[in-house]
Specification:
The protein is mostly beta strands and 263 residues long. Helices cover 5% and strands 40% of the residues. The chain has one domain: Immunoglobulin-like, CATH 2.60.40.2470. The strands form three sheets. Strands 2, 4, 6, 7, 9, 10, 13, 14, 16 and 17 form a ten-stranded mixed sheet that branches. Strands 1-11-12-15 form a four-stranded antiparallel sheet, with no helix packed on it. The longest helix has 9 residues.
Length: 263
């Protein structure tokens, strides 16, 4: 088991550009939402209107049925049962900022565990796009007291957060199947911009790669990701093969971070 904590370093080279869906002349017919959300029609038009969508039990979203803390709701997304996943988009139907997070699996399993903020009780969805252009959707419902997106973060009011901003803590350890589990935490307030007098301030990109530059995963957290985000990534047997893991990223104010995790 290894641990490393490094302060912000040089900027991550280049931004990962992306768009949700592909352009087309006519919208794709709406799918029937198994969660019965009144927001599904809006989401379908906003994110998937021109592309095929299927609700797929192979895309798993695990979260508590009742979340006591709406500012830190644990969620685990797993689309690893699909073949050829190119990106995964996580949405919260009733959040004022619907897009929660996007990740590109790279050489890692198409799964990610993290925590998010909920403004009110809501379905949480994961949409996995495969190489054929189809979006596969899974989801679950979470009940909460709400207000998670409009409350100020604890870090914003702390005199220590500026000294620790973008500090990285990371651990990696073997799984029973011979693969590896990697857990990464970044010190960051992740302010949504919806609390009075507090501007939006969040991580934009986090890239995990080996020393040869082969990407394990690229994570793009949006404003609803919880303060001091903690991410858990799974790598199959032989993916890292005892090579050091490099972590780099930046936030929306241009502050960068870098860290390296030994085998």
């Amino acid at each position: 088991m290894h641990f490393i904590s490094l302060m912000a370093g040089a900027a991550l080279a280049g931004a990962l550009s992306f768009c949700v869906g592909a352009a087309a002349e006519a919208p794709h017919p709406a799918a029937v939402d198994p969660l019965g959300s009144p927001r599904w029609g809006d989401l379908q038009r906003a994110f998937f209107s021109a592309v095929p969508v299927v609700f797929d039990d192979r895309v798993k979203v695990a979260a508590p049925a009742v979340a006591e803390n709406p500012q830190s709701v644990p969620v685990a997304v797993d689309a690893g049962a699909l073949t050829g996943v190119e990106e995964v988009l996580v949405l919260a139907d009733f959040n004022p900022i619907v897009k929660v997070l996007r990740f590109v699996p790279g050489r890692a399993r198409a799964s990610l565990a993290f925590r998010l903020k909920l403004q009110q009780s809501s379905p949480i969805r994961a949409a996995a796009r495969t190489a054929d252009g189809v979006w596969h959707l899974g989801g679950t419902r979470v009940t909460t007291t709400g207000g998670g997106c409009t409350r100020p973060s604890a870090g914003t009011g702390s005199p220590r957060w500026q000294q620790r901003l973008n500090e990285v803590s990371a651990r990696r350890w073997p799984r029973a199947d011979g693969g590896e589990r990697i857990r990464v935490q970044v010190i960051h307030p992740m302010d949504t911009g919806l609390a009075d007098g507090i501007p939006v301030f969040h991580l934009e990109t986090l890239e995990l790669a080996d020393r040869d530059g082969q990407r394990l995963m690229v994570i793009e957290p949006f404003e609803p990701v919880a303060e001091n985000p903690l991410f858990t990534i799974e790598a199959a047997v032989g993916v890292l093969d005892q090579r050091p893991l490099r972590i780099a990223g930046r936030d929306n104010n241009g502050n960068s971070l870098q860290a390296e995790v030994a085998p």
